[in-house]
Specification:
heterotrimer; A mainly alpha (270); B alpha+beta (379); C mainly alpha (313); B: 379 residues; alpha+beta; Rossmann fold; OB fold (Dihydrolipoamide Acetyltransferase, E2P); 2 domains; globular; C: 313 residues; MetI-like fold; two-stranded antiparallel ribbon; 2% strand
């Protein structure tokens, strides 16, 4: 159908131009000597230097990375458990409620999740004195809650694609259920766990709205700092930061692609 | 047919010289409103290779899964070697299963796949590895020990799955369509290997299959299942030559069925009036039936004689027209439309390389058979 | 697993507590994710519900308690004033309908841009297919906020687009693009385009070439093949992608805030302002509850219908 036709390739190229032009301009203007982000004033790396001296951004980045690491890790543990329970445990009393609670965060507007968690934390503090104030802990809890839904979806689809008889075979060979989970299920769904972790890490690192609600003084995340800078107007330091993030992601994706490619080649060779 | 040569001592189900090894007593399995297995009772003896034969959805796999412990019977009792299996989880049963999909662990090598069950049993690593090596030799897979499942062909995977289930020396080995995923040629070779391995190890095999040829070649006895029930149990030759019902006769091999009524019922012979066949059928034995009862006469195609000349005698013969001839190499199948309108199949071995005078299509021909050739069925 | 639980004190205590509650084995495995979601997902809505019917106070926290103990009687003070306020002030209703409009139109535009891309990628030969797919996913992994920020630089009066057009002599005065509804549509289509392409791709890549060949063999011209074979078969992908754009777009805050004008009122932005600028927690809670009922519940119903439909197939 597409043979010989030029329409599709052209549309596709235009689509990619649309996706990448703004990103490219971010990178280009990060090397602009001028304070004005949109007027070219010659090549310079001064904004990278300023970024390295910007303790506010660096501190926020460190907080964001920690929060993202912990929330992704906990979200993978909880999300995997939830997915496993829903896919393998058959019927149990609270099943419908659990299904609802696992899928609802996917469609919940961030403002609602953020507001509701903040109000919960405030009420809990009044009632039981925990969490005392808000900060990294509350942000992490909030991120775990909305990330675990995404992890659960990824893991569920992997479990659905997994041959049930693998687990039965292990049980038939004498492995108890817990053993089966760690020996067979976990290794087989491991790619989904990695994907889920990366997804959760990115979502957490990227979140502005929920973090803005549930954080407290001294625990501003990177998106919050960027947002406050951007609201005040353009800032070449943000461009420099963006360029570094894009570079890191591009390297990561390139490594992942190369890795997948090599594995596929190996699989074909066998 | 080899089984006919078995001495009575190797056929405990005939002589009842020993108690059954595996007893299934009135086992029923319901999934909601659907009854998958319906009051099945079955005794299987030590060292047997028992085939559960039936079409898809007949309940044979569910029965197998109940033996393995993956499903609990809704009613009834399963006993292996005198031990009641109720409430015993799969990981504590003296059974092992070879799965239809093979279910080889994709992240483990062949060696580790096979060793898995032994290690769960608490066998020491060294001993486990030497037992793995032995079983790999038995299934001729030694050189593939370090491969992963995705690096093996279908036939090789089948051997690994078999080795993994055998290495724990289960009391009963359950095989779910063990040869189903192999192509025809490989399947035939593997059948004989499976038989050899079973004889070497003396383990009781229970095989689930939908392939009647496979069941015929492999088993000591066959249990034919339909709609959750066992409709007949017997040795392969018994099932083939003495089917108990039209379903069995039709499911196992090919058959011509003539509907008719009993017109003469004597001590050692019967006569059947069959309008469908267009004549009288003489039967050289008696069955428990009454005069004028509706019966079916089951006649296998290879027992039908096909001639140009009119055969002598009054009964067991009919005239027709050859409609189709299917050449299969070793034999040919003839489809003959009788004057009564009924279509009949007859097979003829191709004994000569060139037969110019062979009966061909659109030729009138006579079919006939002896009075012990077929079976009278009342169901 | 057992040893890990025994070694880490908090895990040991939790395990002990749960065991005392009669939870072990299967029940325990269910209880862990269940309790987390119960406490941090379901209970918060009860709190929001409670606060939405309280009165605002200038205090910390800025709302009146729902339950009052006046010595010998428990008073429950329910104040539906907040909800009446939402209903009477047209701002909230308008923001609600505008949000749905923006989300819907953006999802349609994203579909029109994303479908040809997904189709082209799905029909590409292998090394190129993986590469193009990575190119679609890559922007998703980079910061969402920074991509919106990039559009600011593109659209502002002295931004890239206006500067280019002026230097080419096409216009003499810059066009106002930033702080318009156009910019909001653009921003939403841009950020959510990968979410449209991925489910479409996943669906189209499974479409067998032989089906298209069969259609061509039976005399279907390319257009007919597309409308009678490809399009109906890719319907699940279309619905999936549409939902992935439409749902988050409704509650969007960042894009209207950074690209829209002061009058671009979307419901997520209204809630944000109510909370952060006006510090009116009860009204913000009421907005959240209204949003939940008017947006989330219909979406959940739609999704379960969609799931049932695909199951039936």
């Amino acid at each position: 159908m597409m043979r010989g036709g030029w329409t599709l390739p052209v549309l596709c190229v235009l689509g990619f131009v649309f996706l990448y032009a703004p990103i490219l301009s971010l990178v280009i203007f990060s090397f602009n000597a001028s304070q004005l982000v949109t007027v070219w004033g010659g090549f310079s790396t001064r904004w990278y230097g300023e970024l390295m001296r910007d303790t506010q951004i660096l501190g926020a980045a460190w907080i964001s990375l920690q929060v993202a690491f912990f929330s992704a890790t906990i979200a993978v543990a909880l999300g995997t458990l939830a997915a496993f329970v829903l896919m393998r445990f058959g019927r149990f009393r609270t099943r419908a409620l659990l299904t609802g609670m696992v899928t609802a965060p996917l469609v919940m507007p961030e403002v609602i999740t953020g507001l509701s968690l903040l109000l919960l934390f405030v009420s809990m503090e009044q009632l039981i004195g925990w969490p005392a104030g808000r900060g990294m802990t509350t942000v992490t809890i909030a991120h775990v809650t909305f990330c675990m839904a995404f992890v659960a979806v990824v893991v569920q689809s992997r479990l659905a694609g997994m041959d049930n008889s693998l687990e039965e075979a292990a049980m038939d060979l004498g492995a108890r259920p817990v053993r089966v989970f760690f020996d067979i299920t976990l290794p087989v769904i491991a790619p989904a766990l990695v994907a889920g972790w990366l997804l959760a890490f990115t979502l957490s690192l990227d979140d502005l709205v929920i973090a803005s609600f549930v954080t407290g003084p001294g625990a501003s995340t990177l998106p919050m700092v960027i947002f406050s800078k951007v609201r005040l107007g353009v800032s070449p330091v943000v461009n420099a930061l963006a360029t570094l993030i894009i570079l890191a992601v591009a390297i990561g994706v390139a490594i992942a692609t190369w890795h997948i490619h090599r594995r596929m080649k190996e699989a074909r060779k066998d | 047919m080899i089984q006919n040569a078995h001495a009575a001592s190797s056929r405990p189900w005939v002589a009842e010289t020993e108690p059954p090894f595996l007893r299934i007593q009135k086992v029923t399995k319901k999934f909601g409103d659907f009854t998958a297995v319906d009051e099945v009772s079955l005794d299987i003896y030590r060292g047997e290779l028992f085939c559960l034969l039936g079409g898809s959805g007949c309940g044979k796999s569910t029965l197998l899964r109940m033996l393995a412990g993956f499903e609990a019977p809704s009613e009834g009792r399963i006993e292996i070697d005198g031990q009641d299996m109720a409430g015993i989880p799969p990981y504590e049963r003296p059974t092992n299963m070879m799965f239809q999909s093979y279910a080889l662990f994709p992240h483990m090598t062949v060696e580790r796949n096979i060793a898995y069950g032994l290690l769960r049993e608490g066998v020491k690593r060294d001993e486990a590895m030497s037992r793995v090596a032995d079983i790999l030799k038995l299934v001729q897979m030694t050189q593939f020990a370090r491969r992963k499942p995705h690096q093996l062909s279908g036939g090789q995977r089948q051997r690994v799955a078999l080795a993994r289930a055998l290495v724990k020396r289960p009391k009963v080995l359950l095989l779910d369509e063990p040869l189903g995923a192999l192509d025809k040629k490989l399947r035939e070779e593997t059948q004989f290997e499976l038989l050899k391995i079973q004889e070497t190890l003396g383990i009781t095999f229970i095989v689930v299959t939908h392939d009647q040829e496979e069941a015929m070649t492999l088993s000591t006895r066959i249990g034919v299942m339909d709609e959750g029930q066992i409709v007949q149990v017997g040795e392969p030759a018994e099932i083939y030559e003495h089917p108990s019902s039209r379903f069995v006769a039709d499911f196992v091999g090919s058959v011509n069925l003539f509907e008719g009524r009993i017109s003469v019922d004597e001590k050692d012979r019967l006569e059947i009036d069959s309008a469908e066949m267009g004549g009288t059928i003489h039967v050289g034995h008696s069955t428990s039936c009454t005069l004028d009862q509706k019966v079916w006469y089951a006649l296998r195609p290879e027992k039908v004689r096909l001639d140009r000349e009119e055969p002598v005698g009054e009964a067991n013969r009919a005239r027709g027209m050859v409609e189709e001839v299917l050449y299969l190499g070793g034999q040919s199948i003839y489809k003959i439309k009788l004057d009564s309108g009924k279509s009949v199949k007859a097979t003829k071995p191709n004994l000569l390389r060139h037969e110019d005078d062979a009966i061909s299509w659109d030729e009138p021909a006579w079919i006939s058979w002896g009075d012990t050739a077929g079976v009278v069925l009342t169901r | 697993m057992a040893t890990l639980i025994e070694r880490v004190p908090p895990m040991r205590w939790t395990a002990g507590l749960l065991r005392r509650l009669g939870l072990h084995g299967r029940g325990l495995v269910i209880a862990v994710p269940f309790l987390w979601l119960l406490v941090f997902f379901l209970v918060p809505f009860l709190v929001v519900g409670k606060i939405s019917v309280s009165e605002a106070l200038i205090a910390r926290p800025p709302y009146a308690p729902l339950l009052e103990w006046d010595g010998w009687r428990l008073n429950i003070i329910v104040n539906i004033e907040n909800f009446r306020y939402l209903w009477t002030d047209s701002l909230y209703i308008n923001a609600y309908f505008f949000s749905i409009q923006v989300a819907f139109v953006s999802a349609v535009i994203a579909l029109l841009i994303g479908y040809p891309m997904a189709y082209f990628i799905a029909r590409s030969p292998e090394p190129r297919r993986t590469f193009l797919l990575m190119m679609v996913i890559l922007p998703f992994w980079t910061s969402f906020l920074l991509r919106v920020y990039a559009w600011q630089g593109f659209l502002r009066s002295n931004g890239v687009i206006n500067n280019t057009l002026i230097s080419m002599g096409i216009i003499d005065t810059p066009i106002q693009m930033l702080q318009t509804n156009f910019a909001v549509y653009l921003g939403i289509v841009y950020t959510y385009l990968p979410f449209m392409i991925l489910p479409l791709y996943a669906n189209l890549v499974k479409l067998e070439e032989s089906l298209l060949e069969a259609s061509a063999d039976l005399g279907g011209r390319p257009m007919a093949t597309f409308f009678y074979v490809t399009l109906p078969l890719s319907l699940p992908g279309i619905i999936g992608g549409f939902m992935l754009v439409f749902i988050p777009a409704i509650g969007e805050f960042v894009i209207p805030e950074l690209l829209g004008g002061p009058d671009t009122l979307m419901i997520g932005r209204v809630l944000w302002n109510e909370f952060f600028s006006n510090r009116d927690w009860p009204v913000a809670s009421a907005v959240a509850i209204a949003m939940l009922v008017a947006v989330v519940v219909p979406i959940m119903i739609l999704r379960s219908l969609q799931a049932r439909l695909t199951e039936e197939k």
